[in-house]
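Troubleshooting log. The previous run stalled partway through. Resubmitting the same two chains, unchanged.
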Amino acid sequence: MVVGVDAGGTASRALAVAADGRVLGTGGAGGGNPNSHPPERAAAAIAEAIAGALTGLAPASVLACVVGMAGTSKLTDPAVAAEFERAWGRLGLGARPRPVSDAEAAFASATAEPDGTVVVAGTGSIAARIRKRHLASVAGGYGWLLGDEGSGFWIGRQAVRTTLDALYGSGDLGPLGRAVLAEAGVGPAAPGAAHRLITAANAEPPVRLARFAPLVSAAADDGDPVAGRIIEQAADALTRLALATREPGEHTPVVLAGSVLGEASPVGTLVRERLSGLPVLLSADGVLGAAWLAAVDAFGEHAPRPDRVP
Amino acid sequence: MVVGVDAGGTASRALAVAADGRVLGTGGAGGGNPNSHPPERAAAAIAEAIAGALTGLAPASVLACVVGMAGTSKLTDPAVAAEFERAWGRLGLGARPRPVSDAEAAFASATAEPDGTVVVAGTGSIAARIRKRHLASVAGGYGWLLGDEGSGFWIGRQAVRTTLDALYGSGDLGPLGRAVLAEAGVGPAAPGAAHRLITAANAEPPVRLARFAPLVSAAADDGDPVAGRIIEQAADALTRLALATREPGEHTPVVLAGSVLGEASPVGTLVRERLSGLPVLLSADGVLGAAWLAAVDAFGEHAPRPDRVP
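Second attempt completed without errors. Output:
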């Protein structure tokens, strides 16, 4: 059997999968991203999820284990890598866990093709060029301070900015502006509403601006033109990011992942329109991608694909 | 006599000026911006600067006192306002200090006209419409998290972003890219240079990205096209900001203030070009503007203008 793990910022999930694709066990634990948690805690969470998936199974029978995670670059730090090795060593697995980026796991969750593009847009945004199921290069992914165009952070920030433009300009707030002020806890007729909105936005960690992003989708669905423009700009940015990782005329799959590119998201709909003519796929659960990558490690690329988490 | 104060983030300076415009005394102290310092410390610094300017003079003879400062909106908090009243009360001045925004002081430092526009671009950026020497409305000034297009923060961030684009893309670094990596302490041939640059940029407070801005001016002067484009984008943004505060056809002065719009700055040069046809002035020292506003309070708008700090 093999094990796949999806280690995110808030939760880690693991699947044990048999050679025939049957799911043998599942496990879960807290966040396993070493960028958002101390490395020893992240490593322990991943180990706990793996141990959970192997309950009643023999760890030594694990032929391959792939851990999809954000923040793999953190593992280039030898001290961090050592923490992970220690935590994993205690599991007694038959194979050493192989960390891959969450982008590689998302790509593999959607397609068995070896080459293509994956665009991930959640709180942040990044596009990756995938070759032989490995991340060959990236576009974007600079983080909220330096970039992340089209991400939830960026969309939320645009929502606040356009609301400030309206408050300082015409004073006319549309549905989006009213929703932004309500989310920030500022009355639209409050004196100094603009200043209070700036203060509210700065009172929380910057990435929390992403909390305003769902308001943009809702207002765009209701026909708010300001929200519609933000959605279009986000779609343009994410389309540019996707194309930046591709050769001219390349016809490999483009896999869309993350909440901003979900099936019901207006940004996702527009990106699929802009990329029409290309095979565009929605990512499935990243843990399925990681489990299949582990199956490929153990059994080769014709390994059956586990297609759902029980 | 009257007193003018320029209360900045790192220093506060005060001038005592006679009715005929002669400077009678100068004083200085630490930062007096209540956004970057605890209010009691900011208030104490301003009071110390005023007391210094009045050394050997009679505080009760002060007929007007104007304090130009960033962060005046902080004074709408009654607790903060009370701190300032306490500190100023102890000075025994003949007039209660009147806080004005640094933008109003910058405008008054350059012109005796009552109406116009002032654009301030230092670490942040803002444009203000001035009517009867008061700030009537603003454009921009949302702060680094939400805006500040064309500011030193924004220019520095673009410098880092374009360097990342080059590192992830062609790999060819021009003069600006090399200077950015050197400033960040990252060797251009270091493995993972892009990732190390992202880490270095995120290791300091966000506004410290402004430290990369002077590299853009220098590289643009040396003909680096990447730097040239950033300078043009900054000039476009600041020009837009200026025009957003003006009526169509308005012919009042436009006062440029802040390091990004200084005489020798390439951004300032471009903004002056873009606004050619309008009376564009460079701000003088804000403390002169504050002192003249105090003189207008005391003696009317024909009060002589103090024209330099001794």
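Takeaways: The longest strand of chain B covers residues 23-30. Residues 154-224 of chain B form one domain.
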